[in-house]
């Protein structure tokens, strides 16, 4: 069993939900069957969307790399980042650490059934980075993204969740999802871990793949796939 390192705090509530999913998905009968997890819950990581839109990536990369190195020093053998937008900095991070860093986007693409069009619900940073658009294109699927007005409202929903106002976020999420459905999407990808927190109280208008759930599955698979 490998030690799982978690780069957390982006945001804190989503990180806690991710850890709960890892525990839930681990086939354990007793404490000793669970995965050894080390975590750095650092909410001081600069805003990832702002860094992508401004082009000022350096500070985010610096903080993420510092977190990753700290986790490796604590014994982590595989790393997970429960934040989609942070994956825009994945290659910078991978160059700095000697252990495997899971690719949330890659895992989500594998989990989506073969369809023609995928609707993406994510931060503006994730959308602008093209992470999902490129990854789905490589497997022959088209990515549909919300219109500018719905994307702006969706970012407001993400901020509302971060502030603990979940109910306020449901309307913009529903409207963006319906727009994507009407544009021809056949499945929705919840590509923001704050939006993942709304799934227990929201009925999507289409089949839905949750990036937080997918990353938890991949983390359990990787941690249990080898011996430490």
Form type: globular
> How many H/I helices?
11
Order of helices and strands: EHEHHEHEHEHHEHHEHEH
The share of residues in extended strands comes to 5-15%
Mean pLDDT: 97
Q: What is the CATH domain class of the largest domain?
A: Alpha Beta
What is the number of E strands? 8
State the assembly state of the protein chains.
single chain
Low-pLDDT runs of 5+ residues are: none
Order the strands across the largest sheet as they lie in space.
2-1-3-4
What's the quick description here?
This protein is of the alpha/beta class and 228 residues long. The protein has 2 domains: 111 residues, Rossmann fold; 105 residues, Rossmann fold. The chain is built from 11 helices and 8 strands.
Explain what the structure shows.
The protein is α/β, with parallel strands linked by helices. The protein folds into two domains: 4-103 and 214-224, Rossmann fold; 106-210, Rossmann fold. The chain is 50% helix and 13% strand. It has eleven helices and eight strands. The chain has helices at 12-25, 48-54, 58-73, 90-94, 104-111, 124-129, 131-138, 148-162, 166-182, 193-196, 211-224; strands at residues 4-8, 37-41, 78-80, 100-101, 117-121, 142-144, 187-190, 208-210. The strands form two sheets. It has a four-stranded parallel beta sheet with strand order 2-1-3-4, sandwiched between helices. The chain has a four-stranded parallel beta sheet with strand order 6-5-7-8. Strand 3 (78-80), helix 4 (90-94) and strand 4 (100-101) form a beta-alpha-beta unit. The longest helix has 17 residues, at 166-182.
């Amino acid at each position: 069993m490998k030690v799982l390192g978690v780069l957390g705090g982006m945001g804190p509530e989503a990180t806690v939900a991710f850890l709960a999913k890892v525990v839930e998905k681990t086939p354990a009968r007793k404490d000793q069957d669970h995965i050894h997890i080390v975590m750095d819950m650092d909410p001081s990581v600069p805003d990832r969307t702002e860094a992508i839109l401004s082009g000022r990536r350096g500070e985010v990369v610096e903080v993420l790399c510092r977190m990753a190195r700290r986790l490796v020093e604590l014994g982590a053998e595989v790393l997970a980042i429960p934040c989609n937008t942070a994956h825009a900095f994945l290659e910078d991070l991978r160059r700095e650490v000697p252990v495997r860093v899971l690719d949330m986007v890659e895992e989500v693409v594998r989990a989506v059934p073969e369809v023609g069009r995928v609707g993406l619900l994510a931060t503006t940073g994730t959308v602008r980075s093209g992470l999902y658009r490129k990854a789905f294109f490589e497997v022959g699927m088209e990515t549909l993204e919300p219109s500018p007005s719905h994307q702006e409202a969706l970012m407001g929903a993400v901020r509302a969740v971060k502030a603990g106002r979940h109910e306020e976020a449901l309307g913009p999420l529903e409207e963006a999802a319906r727009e994507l459905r009407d544009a021809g999407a056949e499945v929705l990808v919840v590509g923001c871990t704050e939006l993942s927190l709304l799934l227990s109280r929201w009925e999507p208008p289409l089949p839905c793949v949750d990036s937080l759930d997918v990353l938890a599955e991949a983390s359990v698979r990787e941690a249990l796939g080898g011996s430490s």
